């Protein structure tokens, strides 16, 4: 995996473990020459990963919508900043640059981004690995909700199984590297080709 999109909080959370593990991710990426593609901010967990990567001479690409660039939150020292006109364009741009996606703890923005990646995976529009770094079991409740959706008939087990989860970045990357996307059903194939 050459480049991975990381979606994560524009906040740091209350527990220092979140910042610690975000820094671990940055150091791991830099050590293994995995480029970071992210939201382009300098705040919260986003800023911690980007700064750790830069301290270790890693490649950091930010993709930020024009709207957010003008706030005091855009990182000015990263390898490359791509500015998009709209939030929706940003996601398309990110997806073109990466081999996979990882979510770290975050809020609405993080969930929105990782669920969009999952929706594209479910439709077969994208076939890239999607991982969740489950620091302090942060995502357990969200994952339980997904299991509930399977039980209630709103989500297919094979699509639920697209999500790889670990509380260790090494293990998560190993799982993602071995990932094979589910086979597409005929209906989905037809829709995707149109
Ligand atoms: P949240 O999880 O709500 O804190 O939102 C974080 C996610 O949304 C990140 O992965 C970013 O891509 C995006 N995002 C939210 N706020 C900002 C911001 N101020 N600057 C850049 N990206 C942001």
Model description:
- The protein is α/β, with parallel strands linked by helices.
- It has a single domain, classed as 3-Layer(aba) Sandwich (Rossmann fold).
- About 45% of the residues lie in helices and about 15% in strands.
- It has a seven-stranded parallel β-sheet with strand order 4-3-2-1-5-6-7, with helices on both faces.
- The radius of gyration is 16 Å and the shape is globular.
- The mean pLDDT is about 95.
- Adenosine monophosphate binds near residues 39 and 113.
Question: What can be said about this structure in brief?
Answer:
The protein is of the alpha/beta class. It has a single domain (3-193), classed as Rossmann fold, CATH 3.40.50.
Write the layout of secondary structure elements.
Layout: E1 3-7, H1 16-31, E2 35-38, H2 44-55, E3 60-65, H3 66-69, E4 80-84, H4 87-97, E5 100-103, H5 108-123, E6 129-133, H6 140-151, H7 157-160, E7 163-166, H8 169-177, H9 186-193
Helix pairs in contact: 1-2
The structure holds adenosine monophosphate.
- Relative strand content: 15-25%
Q: What Rg is obtained from the alpha carbons, in whole angstroms?
A: 16 Å
* String of helices and strands: EHEHEHEHEHEHHEHH
CATH fold topology: Rossmann fold
Any ligands, ions or cofactors bound here, and which?
Answer: adenosine monophosphate
Query: Could you name the ranges where pLDDT drops below 50 across 5 or more consecutive residues?
Result: none
Q: Profile the largest sheet.
A: 7 strands, parallel
CATH class: Alpha Beta
The termini sit apart by 29 Å
Total strand segments: 7
Total domain modules: 1
Secondary-structure arrangement, i.e. CATH architecture: 3-Layer(aba) Sandwich
Strand order of the largest sheet: 4-3-2-1-5-6-7
Secondary-structure-based class equals alpha/beta
Q: Determine the fraction of residues in helical runs and give it as a percent range.
A: 40-55%
Helical run tally? 9
Average residue-wise pLDDT: 94
Q: What spatial form do the alpha-carbon principal axes imply? A: globular
